Amino acid sequence: MEPFRISVAQDVLDDLRTRLVRTRFTAPSAPGWDAGADPDYLRSLVDYWANGFDWRAAEMRLNAYPQFTDRGQHFVHVRRDASRPPVLLAHGWPSSFIEMLPLTDLLEVDVVVPSLPGFLFSALPDRPLTRAAIAETFHTLMTETLGYERYFAFGGDIGGAASGWLATMYPHEVAGLHVIHGPFPADFDAAPITPEEQAFLDAEERYDEWDSGYSWIMSTRPDTIAAALADSPAGLAAWIIDKYRDWSDCGGDLESRFDRDTLCTILTLYWATESIGTSFRQYLDYPLNTPRPQITVPVAVTQSHEPGIENFPRSIAHRAASDIRQYSVPGRGGHFLAFEEPRLIADELRAFMQAVD
After folding, report:
1. Segments forming the whole domain that contains residue 51
2. Phi-psi region of 347 (alpha: psi -120 to 50; beta: other; left: phi over 0)
3. How many domains does the chain have?
4. CA 269, CA 93: separation in Å to the nearest integer?
5. How many CA atoms lie within 13 A of 199 on its CB side?
6. Which DSSP helix (H) or strand (E) runs through 10?
7. Helix ranges restricted to H, 185-232
8. Contacting residues for 105 by C-beta, under 8 A, at least 6 apart
9. InterPro entries from the xrefs (predicted)?
10. For residue 350, which of 79, 77, 85 has the smallest C-alpha distance?
């Protein structure tokens, strides 16, 4: 385990600015964001990224958190109270470890925030990047690298799914699981699908038909789109902010949830690490995932408020997990809930950990 500090070379930043100021922007195909990233907003953000954003200040803020690498795995490790089980906070796509930092600031226990394999400073493993493989990497980090005997896991999106696998693969070490997307069962064979469940599944399918273009591209032609995004920072920005706006609980106003410095910090991290392509690997490898067994450890759900998932029936989570201790639907905070509503999540996570531990 080696200490790690973020230090982007100045020539990388100079090259980035040169590319930004020479960006060629597309004409809009539809008003505003109706056809994807709004070209007018993108132009404004790119101008700020090139001429107003202070990366070195952002770098200094990030380096205030103790960071390490071990076996190619990057993580933040904040020590606070070793007498209680720690918590692992796992992000998703197109996110990064910084999504979990506001939540980290509010917790009183030891906190571990890994970068997903293939994201930013974490290397890809030498095997398919399934949810189970991510879980195994995280468990090795928590037990072998850091020496914890028991721990809690929290996450959403990919991180939440990997945390679900942690709970099924290592039920004796995982004290509890807290997720922002209610877990899905491997199948619906145990009991007939209810009308509420069917309505949700139908609505989710309709939303996916509208929203899943990005996923199909990254699942089937990741190297093609990665070649464009790795060469154009404006293209990278468009690809990422489109999802931050769509999936967050921002009411169409992206900067009501993510200010420009935060957006530019995320974008610079992806750019400087050249990791947008490797972040797609878990999409390419998704068909290699196997059905996850039922979750038997204590579970808490704080349901996110985002398109396609906000009407998730609690009964589906009960099909997937046998011991749901806590379930709430706050009606605010989207796909990046830990960042959008860190105090809400801190309160719910704290209550869950205290009740279980």
Report:
1. 2-60+204-284
2. alpha
3. 2
4. 14
5. 8
6. helix 10-21
7. 195-211, 213-220, 222-231
8. 342
9. AB_hydrolase_fold, Epoxide_hydro_N, Epoxide_hydrolase
10. 85
Closest to 164 measured CA to CA, from 173, 119, 155, 172 = 155
Tokens of 42: 């993108």
Structure token digits, residue 237: 């920005």
Tokens of 203: 């609505």
CATH classification of the domain holding 92: 3.40.50.1820
Six-digit token string for 323: 């011991």
Instruction: Name the token pair of 121.
Output: 């400073």
List the structure tokens of 232: 């154009």
How far is 90 from 99, CA to CA, in rounded Å? 9
| Separation in Å, CA 75 to CA 88, 119, 253 | 10, 11, 31
Asked whether residue 82 falls in the same domain as residue 174, the answer is yes
**Cβ distance 89 to 49 under 8 Å?**
no
Of 259, 284, 309, which residue constitutes the final position of a domain?
284
For the chain, give the longest Cα–Cα distance. 60
Backbone region of residue 303 per phi and psi (left: phi > 0; alpha: psi in -120 to 50; beta: other values): beta
Nearest residue to 340 (alpha-carbon basis) of 330, 353, 355, 327: 330
Encoded tokens for 261: 């410095």
Distance, C-alpha 302 to centroid of its chain: 15
- Mean pLDDT for each 10-residue chunk of the chain (357 residues)? 97 98 96 95 98 98 98 98 96 97 98 98 96 98 98 97 98 98 93 95 90 94 97 98 97 97 98 98 97 97 92 96 97 97 98 94
**One-letter amino acid for residue 259 of the chain:** D
